[in-house]
Specification:
The complex is a heterodimer of chains A (287) and B (295). Chain A has 287 residues and is mostly helical. Chain A has 15 helices and two strands. Chain B has a domain at 71-223: MetI-like fold, CATH 1.10.3720. The chains are: A mainly alpha (287), B mainly alpha (295).
Chain lengths: 287, 295
């Protein structure tokens, strides 16, 4: 047993802690042939290059903009869906809506992004619909103004059903007697929702919100990389996608490691803050 | 007891049903379009500018013929099935062994170990150091890269460990008195009692494997090793034209077939998942719940 435990710890040592040690290269001018131990130490030069370069401001703003807008719109969407489903009397209709809205979640990222690109390019039917409603897009997906709305709306479509599961569960555990009591007190449906339903699910909402707060620096970069194009870099290029381009496509290892380290540290701090707030308000914490 | 509904309530009900129908339609539309497009006539499809409720032009199967005749799609399909199977078996085995050990009361350093492991979930070396590690280990263009480095996902580990810890100690103690070893205890007591959680984690691992494209795109140069998602990316995102090289008689008309092939490939690659999913739906719901209890 101790042998197996040792094997597991060695596994984590190699695949998780060794790369952390590799972060040293953020402070080096890393050369593949020389390796971590032979490369020259340059202090904070790589960070300086990032902070003083044109990409720092752009990628940071884009990361925050996409993250916060996504939080603003796609976080409440499943809560609203769950509440509306909860008001339905017909179980069959409810099940059907649930099954259908879960579906987009099961399309892989590549397939989903492929569809988004096809539907919103110059020939796509979504572009045609938007244009007939007064838009004037040649191709929406390559338009800087349309990229973020597309990104967020498609996020909502893909996750609304699946994320509503947890709120539906929370709703079903609200005590039915509370509704009876509220009715007797003369509360209408709206008041019942406001004073019984909402408080009943608020702890779940708060936990989910805090979990999301910790993820602010982790924009869904796989989706960004699949959807963006040089024409939309101005709004779509986030820190993670920039690391990917500079590091793996551009081969600038030390520099992009430094950018990555910056991103991880901010993300780590955000998680700690979120956890602290969570402890204070809901007496639940992640660790 | 029948409560009389106010007019406002009635209106709300109607609007609610209409609204939910609209949402369902929006969620269904991409899938419906894809299926219809895949049976369309290639030229009509290119010229089509609206949502398809029925195949555009004459119904054809020519797209499917091209897709089924395409070797790289089948090759990658086979690869993905291998990665999903092997990755899931190795993953669930390693994760449950770890979860079992770190959930045993008498395993003294369990909290220290979990602390170290949980830290890796919050902070990691990042893209480049990981890439360099993988290449130094010689795992580039090796099938092992899909199986070993991601074998233990920390989140899954925590989910399983939480489930294992919920099993009363008395069961284990009495089994030990009867002479059962760790192996026996795990397979005879722990595993059967946490079947639901284990199946959820199996599902999580399998779906993650099926969908993964980013890391394989970094670690594979050899097309023979590509998982399905990478071939899909070539067809859907990059718009790779080498697809029809196999059947040269159509390659001259390739541009006509591009769109049709895209939709047929999506159907072929997604259909298995969409067919299985209604059956595994309830497990997913359970999985979300377990994840949140942990939080």
């Amino acid at each position: 047993m101790y042998f197996a435990a040792l094997a597991i710890m060695i596994y984590f040592l190699i695949f998780s802690f060794l790369p952390m040690g590799g972060l040293i290269m953020a402070f080096q001018k890393y050369k593949i042939v020389k390796g971590i131990f032979g490369s020259r130490f340059v202090g904070l030069d790589n960070f300086k290059r990032f902070f003083e370069g044109p990409y720092f401001f752009r990628t940071l703003i884009n990361t925050l903009r996409i993250s916060l807008l996504d939080l603003l719109f796609s976080f409440p969407a499943p809560i609203i869906l769950a509440c509306l489903l909860n008001e339905l009397r017909g179980q069959k209709f409810k099940k059907t809506v649930q099954t259908i809205t879960y579906m987009p979640y099961f399309l892989s990222t590549v397939v989903f992004c492929g569809l988004i690109r096809n539907f919103t390019d110059s020939r796509g039917f979504v572009t045609q619909i938007v244009n007939s409603l007064g838009g004037s897009y040649e191709s929406m997906i390559t338009d800087t103004g349309a990229f973020i709305p597309i990104f967020i709306i498609t996020n909502i479509i893909q996750t609304i059903g699946f994320n509503s599961i947890i709120y539906l569960a929370a709703l079903s555990s609200v005590d039915q007697e509370l509704y009876e009591a509220a009715k007797i007190d003369g509360a209408g449906y709206w008041k019942q929702w406001l004073y019984v339903t909402l408080p009943g699910i608020s702890s779940t909402v708060i936990i989910m919100l805090i979990l999301r707060m910790g993820q602010i620096m982790n924009v869904n970069y796989e989706k960004v990389i699949l959807l963006y194009a040089p024409s939309t870099y101005d709004v779509a290029d986030v820190i993670s996608s920039y690391i990917y381009r500079a590091g793996l496509q551009g081969g600038d290892y030390s520099y992009s490691t430094a950018v990555g380290l910056f991103n991880s540290v901010i993300g780590f701090i955000l998680i700690l803050i979120a956890n602290m707030i969570s402890k204070k308000f809901s007496e639940t914490s992640l660790f | 007891m029948k409560v009389k509904e106010t007019p406002g309530r009635k209106i709300f009900r109607v609007v609610n049903v209409l609204f939910l129908t609209a949402i369902s339609f929006i969620c269904l539309a991409p899938i419906l379009y894809t299926v219809m497009a895949s049976f369309s006539d290639p030229v009509s499809l290119i010229n089509s500018r609206s949502m398809l409720f029925w195949p555009a032009g004459e119904i054809t199967l020519s797209g499917y013929e091209l897709v089924f005749g395409n070797k790289s799609i089948w090759k990658s399909y086979g690869n993905t099935i291998f990665y999903v199977t092997a990755g899931t078996i190795v993953g669930i085995f390693a994760t449950s062994v770890a979860a079992y050990i770190f959930s045993r009361k008498y395993f003294a350093p369990k909290n220290f170990c979990m602390l170290l492991i949980s830290f890796t979930m919050l902070f990691n070396g990042g893209l480049i150091p990981n890439y360099i590690l993988i290449s130094r280990l010689g795992l580039i263009d090796s099938r092992l890269v899909m199986i070993i480095p991601g074998a233990i996902n920390v989140f899954n580990l925590i989910v399983l460990r939480t489930a294992f810890m919920g099993i009363p100690d008395s069961l284990e103690e009495s089994a030990r008195l009867d002479g059962a070893g760790d192996f026996c205890i795990f397979f005879r007591i722990i595993a059967p009692l946490s079947k639901a959680t284990i199946s959820v984690v199996v599902l999580f691992i399998a779906v993650a494997q099926w969908n993964s494209w980013f890391l394989p795109s970094l670690y594979f140069n050899d097309r023979d090793l590509f998982p399905l998602q990478l071939i899909l990316r070539e067809i859907l995102i990059v718009g790779n034209m080498s697809l029809t090289n196999a059947s040269s008689d159509v390659s001259s008309q390739f541009s006509i077939y591009t769109l049709l092939i895209q939709y047929c490939t999506i159907v072929v690659s997604t259909l298995p998942i969409l067919c299985i999913y209604p059956f595994i739906q309830k497990y997913f719901a359970k999985g979300v719940m377990i994840g949140s209890i942990k939080g």
